[in-house]
UniProtKB/TrEMBL annotation:
Database matches in SMART domains: HATPase_c, HisKA, REC
GO MF annotations, alphabetized: phosphorelay sensor kinase activity
Keyword Cell inner membrane carried by entry: no
Organism for this UniProt entry: Candidatus Sedimenticola endophacoides
PANTHER family membership: HYBRID SIGNAL TRANSDUCTION HISTIDINE KINASE J
Name of the featured protein: histidine kinase
Record keywords, A-Z: Kinase, Membrane, Phosphoprotein, Transferase, Transmembrane, Transmembrane helix, Two-component regulatory system
Gene3D superfamilies reported for this sequence: 1.10.287.130, 3.40.50.2300, Histidine kinase-like ATPase, C-terminal domain (3.30.565.10)
Any one Pfam family match given in the protein's UniProt record, by short name: Response_reg
Transmembrane segments annotated in the record for this chain: 60-80, 86-106, 138-154, 161-177, 183-205
Length: 731
């Protein structure tokens, strides 16, 4: 269940308060210095990965070593060195090497500098040999280091250039000293080794290049296969999920409701797994695109917890959540990716937790309030330290026993890591065997936004409440929420102490309502409410907090039911409904957003879908929204129908016979008259970023991924129909 704290500070000890396991020593003197340090750290991390910067540091080190070596050789009379030349060479080349280093700091990527550095490296090596006045010289090895280094770092072109320049430079040294008669054999060996060794390295680089190309082709084939398979899986899955949702809207007995709910839960889980595979493929191919925008943050968190509460309840677990009250309602980022990361981490926590609960905490970083930190903490089996580093590897689970005991492909944490890093964030994990694990990630979602002081004046001052919540963490958080609303709260954590508390309240005769929270152990809330009303008054208002899918009989008056997770807005709205005179009423929104644009005539939608089952599902969903539907099975029929009849909007599948969705929208855009615009929504089982981009570039107005739910469909249609209504409608 989700609780928020408002206006009061709650210790973030989490589920293991008092256990010295996870510390958060975030501290800084001021925000500006922290941001500067972070910028410097990011700059240094980027710079240290630059191969030219690495070469520049190695170049300086070798040059200093070479000059010290020659100086010591001269001092011991091992080399006959002209000291004036020595100092000119030392300081001259040192200045050039430092200039190269500083140019990298100013302009990290510059192809011409690599060739200039190559010439300078060979010139410096040649001057070292000239200073020692010996052709058979240990500095010859620097030629080898140069062409191996350049070939490995920059490829075959630089290898060829380094090899030829080294050969020419050493040949010039041999000619300059004219010592062929002294060491002819050694000189020729050294000279030709500058051709043979690079040639061998060139062959090795060719093999590496071919192996990389084959690996890229195999990876591309794998990605194409996974993309096709996810599309083929999503097409029938759309029919299963869609028909299940339609079936849930029909009269069912309790047993049938349970069966249909199981089908819906399984279909949703399968859909998320298929989507994870597709997104992981996009991450591997570097084709993942982000859709950053303003989004409602708290409903997103609640939706994730609601989606997983049924699975948690099956294991008698409870999902808790603590959202920092200072966070604004609107954040900036990619809501779909945030949803995916939270879903993956919480789903894994539920999967590997046998008893206890899973706690989600969200708060801004103290050192940098522009960053948001998410923590998912569980009381599960934990992970050993030596295995923790591998937890984000694909297809990996802690051991075979864990894999056998818990279903899953081991993709959740891998996908979460890839998505977080794609959003410019960081992710990590901490764990202790037997106590559980904590997975965290940090992302910059508060850029340009200030934290809020959500402390409000008490709206319900004077009300007295009895809170019955068995979870100690949930009890504490819910108590703070009620007290921040001005409600005097008496809390009970154990059923055994409830009788004594009720007796005290019965004597005092001062209780306005009860908040009765269910637990995964399935308490009989109706029986408890009967006992409470028998002692505290038959008309006692009761606010039930239950779990999604577990309904209470609507047999009593003055009662409200809120499905866990619970947010502040829901709790305040429920209390306001129980006591209408205590707070101003919030105006109700229209029951359907499409009512705004319906007008006198009904809205007509052109639907192009070749699969009859999916067409039936989509047609029923559109009909339930009050829309008239013209259904065709391919793009050519869609073009003909669009010419013959006026439509307000078109929903077009991408894969259709004769003419696909892309072909339809391209041809239709050429046929539209000036001032007319038919909103076209793409419908596809392949939700990859590349397909989305292709649709928008072709002239589509929006994109819907299968399986489509009614809420998402209504939201997309509402936006485009209102736009069309404002400018005079489609065609």
């Amino acid at each position: 269940m989700v609780y928020e704290t408002f206006g009061l500070s709650v210790p973030r000890g989490g589920l293991w308060q008092g256990v010295p396991l996870f510390g958060r020593g975030w501290c800084c003197l001021n925000q500006r210095s922290t941001e500067s340090r972070m910028a410097i750290n990011i700059r240094w991390e980027t710079l240290i990965q630059n191969p030219e910067f690495q070469s520049a540091l190695v170049r300086l080190t070798i040059w200093l070593f070479a000059m010290i070596y020659i100086g010591l050789g001269s001092a011991s009379s091992y080399y006959a060195v002209e000291m004036a030349e020595y100092y000119r060479s030392f300081f001259g080349f040192l200045a050039v090497f430092l200039a190269i280093l500083f140019s990298i700091l100013i302009r990290p990527e510059w192809e011409a500098r690599r060739y200039f550095s190559l010439i300078v490296d060979i010139a410096g090596t040649t001057f070292c040999i000239l200073l020692t006045r010996e052709v058979i010289n240990p500095f010859f090895l620097l030629y080898v280091w140069i062409f191996i280094s350049y070939g490995t770092r920059y490829g075959k072109r630089h290898l060829r250039a380094a090899s030829l320049l080294s050969f020419a430079a050493y040949l010039a040294v041999l000619i300059h000293f004219d010592q062929w008669h002294v060491a002819a054999f050694d000189s020729l060996f050294f000279l030709f080794s500058l051709l043979i060794i690079p040639f061998y390295q060139y062959m090795l680089l060719n093999k590496v290049h071919q192996a990389r190309l084959e690996a890229e082709r195999a990876n591309h084939a794998k990605s194409a296969f996974l993309s096709t398979m996810t599309h083929e899986l999503n097409t029938p899955l759309n029919g299963i999920v869609g028909m299940t949702h339609l079936l849930q809207a029909t009269p069912l007995n309790p047993v049938q409701e349970e069966y249909v709910q199981s089908i819906a839960t399984s279909g949703s889980l399968l859909g998320s797994l298929v989507g994870n595979v597709l997104d992981l493929t996009s991450l591997e191919s570097l084709h993942l695109e982000l859709d950053e925008k303003r989004f409602s943050f708290r409903p997103l968190v609640r939706d994730v917890c609601l989606a997983l509460s049924a699975r948690a309840l099956e294991k008698r677990l409870e999902i808790l959540c603590d959202i920092d009250p200072r966070l604004p309602d609107q954040l900036v980022g990619d809501p779909r990716r945030i949803h995916q990361v939270l879903y993956c981490l919480i789903s894994n926590a539920v999967k590997f937790t046998a008893q206890g609960c899973v706690d989600l905490r969200v708060f801004p970083l103290d050192g940098d309030p522009h960053w948001l930190r998410f923590e998912v903490e569980d009381t599960g089996i934990g992970i050993e330290d030596e295995l923790l580093e591998r937890v984000f590897e694909p297809f990996w689970q802690a051991d075979a026993t864990t894999t056998a005991r818990n279903d899953g492909a081991g993709l959740g944490s891998t996908l979460a890591k890839g998505l977080v890093e794609a959003m410019g964030g960081r992710i990590g994990a901490e764990s202790q065997v037997g106590l559980g694990s904590l997975f965290w990630f940090e992302v910059p979602l508060l850029a340009g936004m200030a934290l809020e002081n959500r402390q409000q004046g008490p709206r319900f001052r004077g009300l007295h409440c009895l809170l019955i919540e068995i979870s100690s963490v949930g009890n504490a958080r819910l108590s703070l929420m009620l007290e921040a609303m001005g409600i005097s709260c008496r809390s009970v954590e154990q059923v055994s102490t409830l009788a004594a508390e009720v007796s005290r309240l019965e004597d005092q005769r001062r209780i306005d309502f009860v908040v009765l929270a269910d637990t995964p152990l399935r308490h009989d809330l109706l029986r408890l409410s009967e006992i409470l009303r028998g002692h505290l008054g038959a008309g006692l208002p009761i606010l039930y907090l239950g779990f999604s899918g577990k309904k209470l009989l609507e047999s009593s008056v003055n009662s409200l039911f809120l499905a866990k997770p619970v947010t502040r807005e829901l709790l305040e709205g429920a209390v306001a409904a129980l006591f209408p005179g205590s707070a101003p009423q919030t105006p109700r929104e229209p029951s359907s957003p499409l009512q705004v644009v319906s007008g006198e005539r009904r809205i007509r939608v052109l639907m192009a879908e070749d699969n009859s089952i999916n067409a039936g599902v989509l047609r029923a969903l559109l009909g339930s929204l009050g829309l008239e539907v013209d259904w065709v099975k391919d793009g050519e029929e869609a073009l003909r129908m669009a010419r013959e009849r006026r439509h307000d909007l078109a929903v077009v599948d991408l894969r259709m016979p004769k003419l696909d969705g892309i072909g339809f929208v391209k041809q239709w855009r050429t046929l539209e008259e000036e001032g007319e615009h038919l909103p076209v929504i793409a419908l596809t089982a392949n939700a990859s970023s590349s397909v989305r981009r292709e649709c928008l570039e072709a002239g589509m107005d929006d994109f819907l991924a299968k399986p489509v739910d009614k809420e998402t469909l209504a939201t997309v249609l509402f936006g485009h129909l209102n736009q069309g209504h404002a400018r005079g409608g489609g065609r």
